[in-house]
Amino acid sequence: MNLISQQPLTKLNIFRTKGVQMRTFHLTWLAFFFCFFGWFGLAPLMKVIKDDLGLTKEQIGNAIIASVAATVVARILIGRLCDTWGPRKTYSALLAVSAIPIMTVGLAHSYEAFLLFRLAIGVIGASFVITQYHTSVMFDKKIVGTANAVAGGWGNLGGGITNMVMPLIFALFVGMGYMPASAWRLAMIVPGVILLVLAVLYYRYTKDTPAGNFDELSEDAIASSPKAKGTLAIAAKDPRTWALFLAYGACFGIEVTFDNIAALYFSEKFGASLTTAGILAGAFGFMNLFARAMGGIVADKVGNTFGLKGKGRLLALLLALEGVGIALFAQSGSLVLAVVLMLGFAMFLKMANGATYAIVPFINRKAIGSVSGIVGAGGNVGAVLAGFLFKSSTISYSQAFLYIGLAVGAVAAVVAVMSFEKVAEVTESEVAMA
Predict the structure, then answer these.
(1) Which residues form a coiled coil (predicted)?
(2) What is the extent of the structural domain holding 210?
(3) pTM of the model
(4) Do the beta carbons of residue 274 and residue 47 sit within 8 Å?
(5) Which of 4-18, 214-228, 384-398 comes out lowest in average pLDDT?
(6) H/E/C letters for each residue in the chain?
(7) Is the pLDDT of residue 215 over 70?
(8) Is residue 83 part of a domain?
(9) pLDDT of residue 120
(10) Per-residue pLDDT tens for 17-47?
(11) Is the pLDDT of residue 360 over 70?
(12) pLDDT band at 226; cut points 50, 70, 90
């Protein structure tokens, strides 16, 4: 292996598959893409599940919260494992373990059992942290924002495709003669099997870093790699980490909430059929094909000219526009207007996702996994808080969206006043002395 092939790439050629960097890039976004089929595969089928299990609005809200609550802790722990155990082993193990509750959720025949399965399945959401970690170490700082955004965006695209495809898989089983109460259970076996296959592929065809796996690196290589001890404390001591924690809660947190509720919202408020509601909800996720990448690309260009300060201001602007868009969406009185406004705020939301993780790799190079984990957990904290609005029996879905829009605007103000300029990196020894 020559020296160049062991270095982070300075260009992103999405049509290239040769080399460990690009092989890892394509496998990591693909794995994240299919993780959404397991994570949110139940969402577009909730109308059927609601009738089958006799779920109330509050119980559906609890299920939505459960689907993202476990991810909060999982993302922090997974980020730490990336720094120490390595992303290759971490991702392979996560895919294999998470496939179990995904394939067996069909065994649930009560609200309580369904809630526990939903909680267990939520762990797969931590896959995002590994995807962002892996692209961060495989690409040079000049292009890392773009690489992170493209990988994250294409992976998040799974959230939209899931809303479109899972009803079709469900319909396939119904067409084979199964009753709806059995068809939704059988449909969830499909993403579980796919994740098991990806676990094997990820372990076999990726490396922790361009220079090799953590357990293969020399002492000198380890010293220059992102692997470090005490990384969680390092990340937690930096206020910029928590500003990004809030920002990601206001963009990705709302994205996963919308992925969970969109099909049901369009179905119940506007009378859309299960298939139509799934397609409309899928259009929201489908924008990840380009919108998140656009956020990373613009952030890299702004960063090259105005530094981290410019990236921070860009993120604040995108969040503010997202908040306005959600508030307007909440007031829409027709399906057509709702869809138009949804596509509008989705553009700013997904660009904000990309802009957030264009900043993350620059907070502390020695704690990329832990910073990524904490910020990623922020996304799920935002989703949990939003979930409480949707489970309330006194607040309509439209009112919940209005409150969310106002909250996102408040976070934009916090991000706008935060100083993101690069400071001296906090080290393990400094953490120990603190």
Answers:
(1) none
(2) 19-433
(3) 0.79
(4) yes
(5) 214-228
(6) CCCHHHCCECCCCCCCCCCHHHHHHHHHHHHHHHHHHHHCCCHHHHHHHHHHHCCCHHHHHHHHHHHHHHHHHHHHHHHHHHHHCCHHHHHHHHHHHHHHHHHHHHHCCCHHHHHHHHHHHHHHHHHHHHHHHHHHHHECCCCHHHHHHHHHHHHHHHHHHHHHHHHHHHHHHHHCCCCHHHHHHHHCHHHHHHHHHHHHHHHHHCCCECCECHHHCCHHHHHHCCCCCCHHHHHHCCHHHHHHHHHHHHHHHHHHHHHHHHHHHHHHHHCCCHHHHHHHHHHHHHHHHCHHHHHHHHHHHHHHHHHHHHHHHHHHHHHHHHHHHHHHHHCCCCHHHHHHHHHHHHHHHHHHHHHHHHHHHHCCHHHHHHHHHHHHHHHHHHHHHHHHHHHCCCCCHHHHHHHHHHHHHHHHHHHHHCCCCCCCCCCHHHHHHC
(7) yes
(8) yes
(9) 95
(10) 888 999 999 999 999 999 999 998 998 898 8
(11) yes
(12) low
Whether 14 maps to a domain, the answer reads no
Q: Is the pLDDT of residue 388 over 60?
A: yes
Which CATH number goes with the domain that contains 193?
Answer: 1.20.1250.20
pLDDT band at 219; cut points 50, 70, 90 = low
Q: How far is CA 427 from the centre of its chain?
A: 28
Residue 428 has pLDDT above 70, yes or no: no
The region that residue 177 occupies, defined by phi over 0 for left and psi between -120 and 50 for alpha, beta otherwise, is: left
Residue 342 lies in a domain: yes
Q: Look over the chain and give the mean of its residue pLDDT values, rounded to a whole number.
A: 88
Q: Supply 110's token pair.
A: 């009560």
Counting the structural domains of the chain, the total is: 1
> Does residue 7 fall inside a structural domain?
no
